[in-house]
Amino acid sequence: GAPLFTVSNQNGFQARFYVGPDEIEQIKTGARVYISESTHPIEGRITQVSLTMDSQRQAFPVTAFFDVESRRIFSGMGVDIAVEIYRNEKAIVLSRKELVETDMGHAAFLADGAIARQVNVQTGQERGLRVEITGGLHSGDMLVSEGAQQLVADGKLNIVPALITGEALAMLGRGAVGGAQ
Fold first, then answer.
1. Which stretches within the chain are classed as H helix?
2. Exposure of 10 in the CB half-sphere (CA atoms within 13 A)
3. Are the beta carbons of 137 and 119 closer than 8 angstroms?
């Protein structure tokens, strides 16, 4: 019953980390994982997800393999690992301030010439103040990104073109340039 030998892989390394019971359902074998290492994150894949909770840690052990030889990572070293639980390359993601609440759910305003056109949207994943839009908006739509909370459907817009100068960039920090009224 005792291990007689260990096979090591010198072309990569494994990382073992623990995931709480509220997150284990989102962790899947084959998912991408990243070690945040200064300016160059190291990418790997989850190779094993245990379905048995470690009673001491009150969490589930997960193993990831990183197929890279890194001289910056050493055995026994502690690192921060991020697990990619969702990926949508074509997602439209808005800030929560760009959405308004309506009786129908969420909506956004599009600039239709100088008119604010209200469009109902369907939302998906949310992460902090960022919301994925799964329906209602399309790539290339002219979204009103500032002042949406003060707009009414079919209201007039005063579109202020953004300037691309050092002075304009300084004014952007004070909110003097850009947006809609």
1. 166-172
2. 0
3. yes
